[in-house]
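Researcher: I'd like a structural prediction for the single chain below. Treat it as a standalone chain; there are no partners to consider.
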Amino acid sequence: MQNNQNKQTVLSFYKNVIASREVSVIPAFIHPEYIQHSPQLKDGLSGLREAILTLQKMPVQKQDQSPVKLVLASGDLVGMYMLINMQGKWLAVADLFRLEDGLIVEHWDAVQELEQAPDQDALVVQEDLAGQGHPLQENAAEDHIEEDLVNLFRNENRIVHRIIMDGNYALGQSSGTKDGCPFVFYEFLLLDGRQVKKRFSIEQEIPAVSANKNGMI
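Model: Treating it as a single chain, here is the predicted structure.
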C-alpha cells in the first residue's frame, strides 16, 4: 500500500508541479526540509521554486505520449525513468525520490542525451539479454536477489548506494569512474526469475561545480 501511495505522490508531483509549471502547489508534495542532489538545481524549496519559474519561461515541448515510462517503489524510495524531448533533443532521465511523512524530502537524478529518437512504446534497453540471460549468484536463495544485484554492480567497480526492487523490475544507483572521470549510474533491470533479461543504464558525469553542496549521490 505504501509503495503505491508513494508512486502516486511522485506522479502527482510531476503532473501538477513539473509538467504544469505551477509553484503554488509545491507544499502539497514537497517536505519543508527538501534536499536537492541534482547539480543543476539549488537546494531546498526555494531552489525548486526557482527551477519551476525558469521552466515557465521556456517553450512547452509537445509529446504525443507521457514521458514517464517506468515507476518503481520500495520502502521510502521511488525511482522513475522518463524520455523527454527538450528543445529538439531526446533525453533519458532517471529520477530517484525519498519520501517522508507522505512528502518528497530528497531527490537525485541523472540525465543522458540520446543519439536518436527513442521507441516510445517500449522500455529503451542498451543490452537485450533475452535468450541467454545474465545469471546472478546461482547458489543464492530467491530472497537474496537484492544482495546479488549489489554484488553485480560491485563487480563492475561501482559503489552501490541504493537499490529498488519492484515486481520484476529493479533500479540500482551507483557511482564509479568512466574514462578517468567520476560518474553516477542508474541501472534499470528487467528480471526473469534469477536472470537479468534487459538492462538500461543512464549515466552522467559528476561535474566539478554544482548548484548545491549535497553531491549527486
